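agent> Task received from the user: take the single chain below, predict its 3D structure, and emit structure tokens. No templates, no multimer pairing.
agent> Plan: (1) validate residues, (2) run structure prediction, (3) serialize to tokens, (4) report one or two observations.
agent> Step 1 OK, no nonstandard residues flagged.
tool_call: predict_structure(input=
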Amino acid sequence: MLLRHLSFKTLLVASLFVVTLIPSLALVQTWWHLQQLAELVEQSQKQAEGLAALQRSYAEQSDLFERSTRQWNVLHEETFSRTGMQAVLSLQQLAGRLQQLDEAHLQQLGSHLAAWCGKSRDLLLGAGGQEEPWSRQYEELSRLGNALDVQVKRVSAERRLQWDSSLREKRQQADRVAILSLCLAVVLGLLLAWLLVRPLQQLRDKIGRLALGQRGQHWDMSAPADILQLAAALRELDGRLARLEQDKASFFRHVSHELKTPLAAIQEASSLLHDQIPGPLLPSQQEIIGITLSNTRLLRQRVDALLQHDAANWLGRPLTMAAHDVRDLVQHAAAAMQPLLQQKKLQLKLPEQAVVLMVDQEKFRTIIDNLLSNAIRFSPENGVISVEAGRSADHSWLVVADQGRGISEQEGSLIFQPFYTGQVPAGELPGSGIGLTMVKTFAQLMGGDVESLPAAQGARLRVWWP
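)
tool_result: status=success, residues=466
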């Protein structure tokens, strides 16, 4: 495709050129229409001035003819005869000009005037004092003058109508061109913007999915050359991240085998010694074996939690969001912890009605297990653990609260960090320090997060997700 051979800057400049070219062409066409109108106005003005001059000349020469012939008929002086003949010649020239015009009525009027001039010339040359022929000539001349006035007014009105019609037509053409050019410029602008923005939007979506852990995406797209270069670099980065995660998974499997196998052997051997299977032990020896066994169990617990946390962080499967009753999920998690609840005589307070939310069941179960385990661990005997859940306009939420010592303001930013255990409750062994870290990890895998809310007594942890 042509886009692959052009840069984003070149396409942007070309888009601006194309979008501005269309209104420019419309302006040129409007200017051309204005030029045509100006020429039409100039031509109409010249024609109107010519007709007006012809009409004035006709009036002057007809008056001169009638006055000089009347004087000639009375005084019989050659001067008046010559003056009348000059007027006839001038009127004959006017007749020729009328016959050259492109108006049929004016041409016909010119022919009548030419015939009149011929009769008038004959009368001047030989008809001398006869009154009746001259009266007819005067009447005919007056009639032709009135007809000329009527025709000039008619031609002027027709030219005015023609001018008005041309003006309306040119105005409508200019309006159509302006509207069409504007619509075309907007459509082309939107189309070019879509061609330029769409690859950037696709690239941004792919980068967002890459950040969320989606690997092996299809990076081919129709885009400018520089964006394709960026997509190629991201494709390489995507491949490298996929290979790193494969190496990470292989490393976790190897570490899981290499650490858990010897730890299991140490724990089993310590248990045999603690139970005095090989033979009786001194009290001091039993104390040492007890310490060894306790720390071995603690080390194995932390290794398991760390591997589970990192596996969730690096190898988390895609979300499988579905509608589940959160109350039932909490009850199932609490059933597995019933001995711990009974040991400390704790009461678990759940929502009275079913709360159906969209969750990833596997990740949400891990969140509940760790929150309940943490609440049981820090709750005093005969305490109450309350669980609330709900949905707002843009997210769902789960709140687990206990009646323990609570979370101080300083601890609010530390409790979600790996291996932070804080003050160990009385009668409890140190925890792995990774339970709330796993809660945060799995909440973020679901697109949300976890936070510590202010509480009058105990701790109040809130998990939310879209």
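agent> Step 4: summary for the user.
Residues 131-211 form the longest helix (81 residues).
agent> Done.
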